[in-house]
């Protein structure tokens, strides 16, 4: 059931959305910078095509404009929880491979991980605001993948960062849709119950 | 119709007539000189565009028509120029094309669009003819689009391919209805306002940011201001009395590239007395050191030639002199 839209709820939602939009923008800028560093330091070709990697949430979506607010929040939440786990794994792999030799890349990864965590929190708050139950995390993360070769790890990392950059753009758009005042119908683009 | 390349040698046979038959060839109703004939064959060496036309061959004595053809001289197509752009994101994008040089004969264009493994249909626009558009089926995809344009005519074919991702081709149309107005009682201000381009479908969810540039007509250097939201801006550092030229460009807040500059608008800041600007009545601008709000005397014609005191570079209209004196007294 959609919560009644009291003025304080609407204000809190708008506040969360606008802060989330700013965070998504900063996150995207940092991920784009990180991508440049990552490609260079991992010796990759920036234009290399990376096939969809298992466990990396794809930002691509059909009929984006028809999604309800709840769908947007839930898809975003699932994605950023997955990115949180993937980035933590990348950080661990960095440390194993390069130790202290690549502290800059490690720090940049850690900074993005922090932003992803903060954004996840924003999404959870928005869902709480709508009295939506927050899906548990147990089933969210991908099962531990089989041990990849060093090169496969690098390519997966490239895929993760690229997809995260796309998600950051999508999330800003999603939050703008959420922040729109919508009519109280089930198919409103704002926060409305999906039929 | 017979198509031949520019520079080719063309031999036309008069139908089933023997080589030694007496014939007359005409082109566009004019007899062709016999020196161009080899027996009954018409020989055209190194054809050029001017030799395109309707050719007839008549039997010598009876003037029976034995052969006719429409000769069109042209060239095979060079590599076409292809451009794709989304000015209505997130609805879709369009591609447009042209040939760098004309072929002078009919061409057909075929365009294919692939997104990953999926073929997409690019619907041809009625106007202009060399354009087609595609609706996005997916948004926020990292998979690139590959567009191939093939051009074919009777003398050959050529093609070109563009590969791009969804964000890279986003380029709005320029802002519309740019208006610049003076601000009453503010000699250094100009109020500029504009509207989102009408082709941009959802500025609320996909807001645009703007870039404004302005300069006085008498200077070459532009001032720039980037604005992250809003469709208006007040210029506060205009030179008093100088006519300004102002333009605005737009970009999606997150992705893509800047639009072309809008149509330029002109405006002059408010001056104390609304007069026409004239280049002859330049009065040296003076400022008071005691205040930054001192209004420099406007470069407007405020006196008749007969009221001018002095001559050359220091000629000062006595009325203007009074004004300057009055202001100086005020602010000392």
From TrEMBL, chain A:
InterPro entries: 4_helix_cytokine-like_core, Ciliary_neurotrophic_fac_CNTF. Belongs to the CNTF family. It comes from Gymnorhina tibicen. It is found in: Cytoplasm. The keyword Iron-sulfur does not apply. The gene is Cntf. GO terms for biological process: astrocyte activation; ciliary neurotrophic factor-mediated signaling pathway; negative regulation of neuron apoptotic process; positive regulation of axon regeneration. It comes from the Eukaryota. One of its GO terms (molecular function) is growth factor activity. Its main location: cytoplasm. Coiled coil: none annotated. This is Ciliary neurotrophic factor. CNTF is a survival factor for various neuronal cell types. Seems to prevent the degeneration of motor axons after axotomy. Keywords: Cytoplasm, Developmental protein, Differentiation, Growth factor, Neurogenesis. Gene3D superfamilies: 1.20.1250.10. GO terms for cellular component: axon; cytoplasm; extracellular space. Pfam families: CNTF (PF01110). Residues 176-195 are annotated as: Disordered. The keyword Cytoplasm applies.
TrEMBL record, chain B:
Its main location: membrane. It is a lipid-anchor; GPI-anchor. InterPro entries: FN3_dom (IPR003961), FN3_sf (IPR036116), Hematopoietin_rcpt_L_F3_CS (IPR003530), Ig-like_dom (IPR007110), Ig-like_dom_sf (IPR036179), Ig-like_fold (IPR013783), Ig_sub2 (IPR003598), Type-I_Cytokine_Rcpt (IPR050379). Signal peptide: none annotated. PROSITE patterns: FN3, HEMATOPO_REC_L_F3, IG_LIKE. The keyword Cell cycle does not apply. It comes from the Eukaryota. One of its GO terms (cellular component) is CNTFR-CLCF1 complex. Pfam families: fn3. Keywords: Cell membrane, Disulfide bond, Glycoprotein, GPI-anchor, Immunoglobulin domain, Lipoprotein, Membrane, Receptor, Repeat, Signal, Transmembrane, Transmembrane helix. The chain crosses the membrane at residues 307-330. It is found in: Cell membrane. Residues 174-274 form the Fibronectin type-III domain. Residues 1-57 form the Ig-like domain. GO terms for biological process: positive regulation of cell population proliferation. GO terms for molecular function: ciliary neurotrophic factor receptor activity; interleukin-11 binding; interleukin-11 receptor activity. The keyword Membrane applies. Belongs to the type I cytokine receptor family. Type 3 subfamily. This is Ciliary neurotrophic factor receptor subunit alpha. It comes from Gymnorhina tibicen (Australian magpie). The gene is Cntfr.
């Amino acid at each position: 059931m959609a919560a009644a839209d009291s003025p304080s709820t609407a204000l809190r939602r708008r506040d969360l959305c606008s802060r989330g939009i700013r965070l998504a923008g900063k996150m995207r800028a940092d991920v784009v910078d990180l991508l440049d560093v990552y490609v260079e330091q991992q010796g990759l070709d920036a234009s290399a095509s990376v096939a969809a990697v298992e466990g990396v949430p794809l930002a691509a979506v059909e009929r984006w404009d028809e999604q309800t607010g709840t769908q947007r929040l839930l898809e975003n939440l699932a994605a950023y929880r997955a990115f949180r786990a993937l980035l933590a794994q990348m950080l661990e792999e960095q440390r194993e491979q390069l130790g202290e030799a690549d502290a800059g890349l490690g720090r940049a990864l850690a900074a993005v991980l922090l932003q992803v965590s903060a954004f996840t929190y924003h999404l959870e708050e928005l869902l709480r605001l709508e009295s939506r139950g927050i899906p548990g995390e147990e089933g969210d993360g991908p099962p531990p993948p089989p041990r990849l070769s060093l090169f496969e790890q690098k390519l997966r990392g490239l895929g993760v960062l690229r997809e995260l950059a796309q998600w950051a753009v999508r999330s800003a758009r999603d939050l703008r849709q959420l922040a729109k005042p919508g009519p109280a119908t089930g198919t409103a683009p704002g926060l409305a119950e999906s039929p | 119709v017979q198509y031949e390349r520019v520079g080719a040698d063309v031999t036309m046979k008069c139908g089933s007539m023997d080589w030694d038959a007496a014939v007359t060839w005409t082109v566009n109703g004019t007899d062709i000189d016999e020196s161009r004939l080899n027996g009954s064959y018409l020989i055209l060496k190194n054809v050029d565009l001017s030799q395109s036309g309707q050719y007839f061959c008549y039997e010598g004595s009876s003037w029976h028509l034995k052969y006719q053809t429409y000769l069109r001289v042209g060239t095979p197509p060079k590599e076409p120029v292809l451009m794709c752009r989304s000015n209505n994101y997130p609805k879709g994008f369009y591609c447009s094309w042209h040939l760098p040089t004309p072929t002078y004969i009919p061409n057909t264009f075929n365009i294919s669009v692939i997104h990953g493994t999926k073929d997409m249909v690019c619907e041809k626009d009625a106007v202009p003819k060399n354009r087609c558009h595609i609706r996005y089926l997916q948004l926020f995809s990292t998979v690139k689009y590959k567009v191939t344009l093939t051009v074919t005519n009777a003398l050959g074919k050529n093609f070109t391919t563009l590969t791009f991702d969804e964000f890279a081709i986003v380029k709005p149309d320029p802002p519309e209805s740019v208006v610049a107005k003076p601000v009453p009682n503010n000699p250094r201000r100009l109020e500029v306002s504009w509207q989102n381009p009408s082709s941009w479908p959802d500025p609320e969810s996909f807001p645009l940011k703007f870039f404004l540039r302005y300069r006085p007509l008498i200077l070459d250097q532009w001032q720039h201001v980037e604005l992250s939201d809003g469709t208006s801006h007040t210029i506060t550092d205009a030179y008093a009395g100088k006519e300004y030229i102002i333009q605005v460009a737009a970009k999606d807040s997150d992705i893509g590239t800047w639009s072309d500059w809008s149509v330029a608008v002109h405006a002059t800041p408010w001056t104390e007395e609304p007069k026409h600007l004239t280049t002859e009545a330049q009065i040296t601008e003076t400022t008071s050191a005691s205040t930054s709000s001192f209004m420099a005397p406007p470069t407007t014609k405020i006196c008749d030639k007969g009221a001018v005191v002095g001559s050359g570079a220091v000629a000062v209209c006595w009325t203007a002199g009074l004004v300057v004196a009055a202001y100086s007294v005020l602010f000392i």
